[in-house]
Amino acid sequence: MAPFSLFSLFLSCFLPLLSPATSTNSEGNALHALRRRLSDPTNVLQSWDPTLVNPCTWFHVTCDSTNHVIRLDLGNSNISGTLGPELGQLQHLQYLELYKNNIGGKIPNELGNLKNLVGMDLYGNRFEGEIPKSFAGLKSLRFLRLNNNNLTGSIPRELTALSNLKVLDVSDNDLCGTIPVDGPFAMFSMPSYANNKRLNGPELKGLVPYDFGC
Amino acid sequence: MRAAVTNACFRFLFATAATICFSCCYANSNVNVVCIESEREALLKLKNDLIDPSNRLSSWVEGGDCCKWIGVVCHNITGHVHQLHLAAPPPPPDDYFASLAERDAYYRSKLGGRVNPSLLHLKHLNSLDLSSNNFSSIQIPDLFGLLGSLTYLNLSRAQFQGAIPRNLGNLSKLHYLDLGGNNLLPEARSLQWVSELSSLKYLDLSGVDLYIASDWLQVTYNLPSLLELHLSDCSLAADPYQISVNSTKSLAVLDLSSNQFSSLPMSIFSLHGLVSIDLRYNSLEGPIPDYFGNMSFLEVVDLSFNSLDSSIPNSLYSLNRLQFLSLGNNNFQGEISSAMGNLSSLIHLDLSDNMLQGRLPTSLEHLCNLKELDLSFNHIDQDISEILHTLSSCSLGCLESLSMAYNQLSGHLTDFFGQFKSLVHLSLSGNRISGPIPFSIGELSSLEVFDVSENQLNGTFPPSLGQLGNLETLSIGQNVLEGVVSETCFSNLTRLTYLEASGNMLRFQPNPSWVPPFQCETIELGHWYLGSKFPRWLEFQNNLSGLDISHAGISDVLPTWFLNLSTHFEYVDLSSNDLTGGISYLNVRTYLDLSSNRFTGPLPRLLPTLLGLVLSNNSFSGSLVEFVCNSSESRNMWILDISTNLLFGEIPDCWSHWQGLGLLNLGNNKLTGKIPSSLGYTNPVELNLRNNSMFGEIPSTLQNCSRLLILDLSENHFSGSVPAWMGEKLFNLVVLILRSNKFDGHIPHKICALQYLQNLDLAHNNISEAIPKCFSNFSAMATKNKTSADLGGWGFVEGKSVYWSALLVLKGREDEYSSTLGLVTSLDLSANHLTGQIPKELGTLTGLRSLNLSRNLLTGNIPDNIGNMESMESLDLSMNKLHGGIPSSFSNLNFLNHFNVSYNNLTGQIPTSTQLQSFENSSYMPNHLCGPPVSKNCITKGVPTDGGGSEGSSGQSKVKGLYVSIVVGFVMGFWGVVAPLFFIRSWRHAYYQKLDHVGRKLYVFWATMGR
């Protein structure tokens, strides 16, 4: 080990920093910002080294061939804390899997920027506040599971524009108002809405305000 | 700097002979007396026996006036020689880069040889200084004990060895005795002779092994006149037991540094007049005892470099005479008490390298005399402008040095900053300070060191920095400064020697004829844009020893003048530019990085002292023969990376003198031939030969590579079987990559002994037979919680590790893993001819993150317990002959992000989980599977499932179907009633008035139905 330590000593004193390119690693920065909001008792985020050029080698993060983040798989990871607006920078994200954790606070409106999102699973957390209207921008969304949280307010009518939505679950929240019937909502069944004490439905367009009872 | 201050503080008390003499050491005293004949003869005899390589005593000649000789001081009336000052001159500044000539001159200036007894003829000699010479072959001569007139004797650091003659005790007039820094032992295990030196005021026995002299304490503490005692590095571990010391009241300065005390020696508490105590570099543990606060005369306390912990005791703050307090490099915790403000005499305060947290107390504003404040390497979390405000109220005019590097400081450097006019040294690196460097920085005209590197400073390179005519160190690297730097920014920086500014987005393109006003030793401008031409101004830097102009956008031929610079480079980093041309020779002593350029031609000739050489990503071509075999001297090289070049030919077989190698990376070249057997003797930590055209079997000499952590031989034409000895001999292996070769035979069971193996990649070979069940012995793949994220590194670059790294295929893509390699676990056996079943033992490797068994001939069912591998992110079992179902346990795999079971004979329903349904159906097809995400419904269950794939069993699906029909029915029916009403204008108004009522009814209805 002698040559090693000698060399280390030398390098520590005199070598310039071979720093990672300070170029665009906005997705890595966004994920690192997320990490700073989260408490991670079981160390699932241990591999998230912000000094790497991109986050593609971080565990629970998947990139496509152009090094854009397409999946974030952190279901059932014992993490707590909140989400922040920076997640909206993951423009190529297809799957946001944060289910069965202890994450609280509001769902950031910026998640509505994720045009490529196919699945968003935030179920089984402690999210509160309203379902962001901005979710209407998630044109590729097929799976939206927000059940088992503390969400309030009504189901935004804007979500009826999500023409690809196949699975919706908002059960076990504290939602109110009426249930949309247009677009993909025509095919969702009762269990998707169960256990929201103030939720009425279906909506009676023009007859009852959609946020009736809120 | 700290040591210098300490010494200054210690010596201030003893301003007698020592200080006075130095004023006349090298100047001849202008006396009018002529020297005495007999004494001249004695001096000449003395000279005759001395070895004087630099001829320092050239003035000592026959017949001369010896009172005018260098080092001789005569009495101005009697003409007797009174003082002999033959100390060697001080060493060159403690600088690694001191030239060989300087060092040589220094060593030649030392006197050696013997001390002739003629010295005894100098009967009136009262002062003798032979310090810092080199008498390495002799003991301290007995004759010194006969120089009865001596009041001053300094033999320090003169390489005397052996026992100290006891007759030094005869020198009863001695006031000053310094034997420190030699390699001495007490004669007869006793210091009794010292007790006879009753006039002694200053005693330095540093470096004398007093472990065997148990009377050291009684003898020294009892000297009646002693003011200053230095017992540094004397192997003292504890007070001698049963001490009863009648301590001197006079002792003011006590130096017990560099011993092995584990607790504060109780004897010091009997020294009531103590002014200065130095206990640096001991092994002190636990808290500082409260009674330390009783030593009320203390002015200097140095407890640095120990293992003291707990909080700093309040009792310490009652020492209101303290001027110098150093508690650095301990484990003190908690916040700094506001009582610190009581120490209003403090000049120097060093609390660096502890675990102090919180904010600085505002009471520091009472420290009106503070010149030096060092709080670096703690966890202080505060706005820098608040701290500057606190310090400004009183110490504004006197603060010379402020170090708060590596804390958690935030906020901006405000313009207010310019008021610290006395500031010489400022270090705030490694914090989170943001905003611009204030313009007022230019007002700090005394500033010599300005270090704000590794922060988040933005804005431009302030032109006012250029006004700092005393600036020697400018360290602003690793910030987010941007914009253009003009050459006028440097116009007054004539004393600059260290310019460290890498990692900013600055542009600097001076006029091609610009001649810098400075002569730097270090220039680091990595990631600056320096223009496409190679910076010509470097030609005028004659003292340059460190250069980093990596990532600088230079697109040029490396100029010949650069290759011919006479400067002795210690390190050079030109990486990641667009430099071209060939390099025949480069004069770099330690580290050279030319990676990621377009250099061509044969490999350069280099100094054999080089420790690190990184030439990767260039177009160097030709053979390795001359480079490797050129000299038979042993090489010290630790890092050799010539990967991704155009080297061809065979790897020569002359590696036996390269035994220090840590990293050998020759990957991505056009090398052919076999692995030479001598390569095995280099015993590297990482060996990478990937992607060449090499062939043959792995030579058995690689068995010597017991240090190997990472072995990558992938993408060659290696053949034969995977050697079984790997399991036994390469027992440190963490990463083994033999991917894409022609290995055949079976996987040897002995390989299962590799207990540290985390990544095994045998993919794309011709390996046959079954997967060994003993794979379950790979315990590093079975542990989920890895202790260390990295595997260590090959060195440090500005304090940050450069880690061992490996290119691994995970998540369906190839990536380099470095700082997190220690966490990565993968097993890839894909594209071989493996047969038999997937052994259920694989399921015990619950720490495995990636498993690829695709493209083999595996049969049978998928073992249930694969679903227990909870860390699994990437699982590929495709293109085998597997049958049966996908085990329902697969629903437990929360972290799956890459999954493929296509092209098998699997049947049954795809288990449901958020993860499994998130993959495309191409992950499952073709098989005989049903349920989402494949379009085929599982009709055998009776009720078709919807294509969406929500969670729940088929039982739930039935209920769901029922609800769907109820809802649809209700909506249709409701609209059948309401809609007609709605369109009949005259009815609408009436119904609007009833809406509230209707709504309430609906709510009740739905609420009950929803339960």
Automatic annotation (TrEMBL), chain A:
Signal sequence bounds: 1-23
Secreted found in the keyword field: no
Top-level division of the source organism's lineage: Eukaryota
Annotated ranges, domain Leucine-rich repeat-containing N-terminal plant-type: 25-64
Keywords: Leucine-rich repeat, Repeat, Signal
Annotated InterPro entries: LRR_dom_sf, LRR_N_plant-typ, LRR_R13L4/SHOC2-like
Domain Disease resistance R13L4/SHOC-2-like LRR as annotated: residue spans: 82-172
Keyword Heme carried by entry: no
PANTHER family per the UniProt record, alphabetical: SOMATIC EMBRYOGENESIS RECEPTOR KINASE 1
The protein, known as: Leucine-rich repeat-containing N-terminal plant-type domain-containing protein
From TrEMBL, chain B:
Keyword Kinase in annotation: no
PANTHER family, sorted: LRR RECEPTOR-LIKE KINASE, LRR RECEPTOR-LIKE SERINE_THREONINE-PROTEIN KINASE FLS2
Annotated Gene Ontology cellular component terms: plasma membrane
Lineage of producing organism: Eukaryota, Viridiplantae, Streptophyta, Embryophyta, Tracheophyta
Membrane topology type: Single-pass type I membrane protein
Key words, A-Z: Cell membrane, Glycoprotein, Leucine-rich repeat, Membrane, Phosphoprotein, Receptor, Repeat, Signal, Transmembrane, Transmembrane helix
TM regions (residue ranges): 962-984
Domain of life: Eukaryota
Pfam families cross-referenced by the UniProt entry: LRR_1, LRR_6, LRR_8, LRRNT_2
Record GO biological process: signal transduction
Domain Leucine-rich repeat-containing N-terminal plant-type: 37-74
The keyword Kinase is assigned to this record: no
Organism: Hibiscus trionum (Flower of an hour)
First and last residue of the signal peptide: 1-27
Subcellular location: Cell membrane
Protein family membership: Belongs to the RLP family.
Protein known as: Leucine-rich repeat-containing N-terminal plant-type domain-containing protein
SMART domains: LRR_SD22 (SM00365), LRR_TYP (SM00369)
